[in-house]
Amino acid sequence: GKNGYPFYMEKEIMEQPEAIRNTIKDRIVNGLPDFTSDGVPDSLFTDCDRICVVACGTAMHAGLVAQALVKSIVHVQMDVELASEFMYSDPVIDEKTLVIAVSQSGETIDTLEALKYAKRQGAKCLSVINVKGSSIARESDYVLYTAAGPEIAVASTKAYTTQLSVFYLVVAKMALLRGVYTEEQTKSFIAELERVPEVMQKVLEKRRDIHVIAKKILEAKDLFMIGRGLDYSILLEGSLKLKEVSYIHSEAYASGELKHGPIALITTNTPVVATVTQEKLMSKELSNIKEVKSRGADIVLFIKEALSGDLDTEYQVIKLPDMQDEFMVLPASVALQLLAYYVSSDKGFDVDKPRNLAKVVTVE
Ligand code: M6R
After folding, report:
1. Which of 115, 359, 361 should be mutated for ligand 1, with most atoms under 8 A from CB?
2. Using CA atoms, how far apart are residues 141 and 270, in angstroms rounded to an integer?
3. Does 111 contact ligand 1 (Cβ within 6 A)?
4. Among 188, 198, 272, 361, which one is most buried in terms of CB atoms within 10 A?
């Protein structure tokens, strides 16, 4: 059941600290990432010269975060392909490519077909799956299961953040195996990952403040989400979440791209949601926020607490508890999920069953 919550989506958002704990706990041995119990050999991560994620929707968005981390930390080429486009895009894959399929259900037909195609081309296939024994899991050479438990709401929440936590383990493993991180650096990265559940809990405790902000965008027709780097990656997911449950037209843009077209759509009172969680991007992000503010936009800003020194008081601000910048996607995602959830439930929608959507998509 819903455990006293009005909707599964809220229950599943609230379950995330526990879901992440369950996903990582058996995969950390002596402070280091360990996939022995999954039967995944280290060679899988050292013998590839390229990684390619195939997935759809939210699972694809988890791949985008992983891509940013793998590139910046491990310096290995990684691509993220929409599963539905993959086999028609003449992908460059061979025995040296590690293809990673990401799927909550393990039954999404596009992802399954993409994986089968990759196998025929000789790629090694790993999958990150929530449902045990599902079709994609059975087709894969190796599986890393997320321990999110059953996800009932159509809008994916805990599946996404547990997929991310698996990717943090993979990144740590690759960095260590490839000599990018020392054992000590790997341990400190993993120690930060272990803090995620308690930090997420702090975001969940701010849900009333997020609810207050949600009430201000209920009537919006169009909304924009802007950020750079990892902030942009999580806003793509935040925007998908908002549109699928609240039916508000929402678009995520890389802030630097605004001046190349989309800023034409910003007028008085257009809601703009921004995230600022990466110190190295902060000054450019804040100046892009000022630009849309000066066109009349109403700014909702989710900002890492440590970066929130002197801010424009005209913004509606939610401070996110501090983690190392690479990990801020996790607390930020929870905040964006809550925003989407409250907009939908306040509008009186059937949050768990948005119109036109199915939990598992089995047609191509
Ligand atoms: O079961 P899967 O993870 O393969 O599903 C992929 C997408 O259909 C799914 O993430 C979809 O985008 C969700 N409704 C998003 O909340």
Report:
1. 361
2. 48
3. yes
4. 272
Is 361 a pocket residue for ligand 1 (Cβ < 6 Å)? yes
How many CB atoms are located within 10 Å of the residue 358 CB? 10
Nearest to 224 by CA among 192, 193, 184, 255: 255
Ligand 1 site, residue 339, Cβ cutoff 6 A = no
Q: Using alpha carbons, select from 52, 107, 120, 50 the residue that is nearest to residue 82.
A: 52
In three-state secondary structure terms, 280 is helix
pLDDT for 144-161, tens place per residue? 999 999 999 999 999 999
Name the residue of 9, 58, 247 to mutate for ligand 1: max ligand atoms within 8 A of Cβ: 58
Q: Is the CB of 67 under 6 A from ligand 1?
A: no
pLDDT band at residue 312, thresholds of 50, 70 and 90? confident
Q: Write down the pLDDT at residue 192.
A: 98
* Among candidate residues 138, 194, 127, the one with its CA nearest the CA of residue 163: 127
**Of all atoms in ligand 1, which is nearest to the CA of residue 241?**
16
**CA–CA gap between residue 135 and residue 101 (Å, rounded):** 12
Q: Is the ipTM of this complex over 0.90?
A: yes
Minimal-distance CA residue to ligand 1 atom 7:
57
Question: Do 130 and 105 contact (CB within 8 A), yes or no?
Answer: yes
For 96-119, what is the mean pLDDT? Answer: 97
Q: Is the CB of 23 under 6 A from ligand 1?
A: no
pLDDT one-digit tens code per residue, 151-209? 999 999 999 999 999 999 999 999 999 999 999 999 999 999 999 999 999 999 999 99
Closest-CA residue, ligand 1 atom 14, reads 155
Question: Distance from the CA of 164 to the center of ligand 1, in angstroms?
Answer: 14
- What per-residue confidence (pLDDT) applies to 66? 98
pLDDT reading at 273 higher than 90:
yes
* Nearest residue by C-alpha to atom 11 in ligand 1: 57
Of the candidates 84, 88, 91, the one whose C-alpha atom is nearest the C-alpha of residue 52 is 91
Tokens of 296: 């009349």
Residue 353 — φ and ψ, nearest 5°? -130, 70
User: For residue 303, what pLDDT band results from cuts at 50, 70 and 90?
Assistant: very high
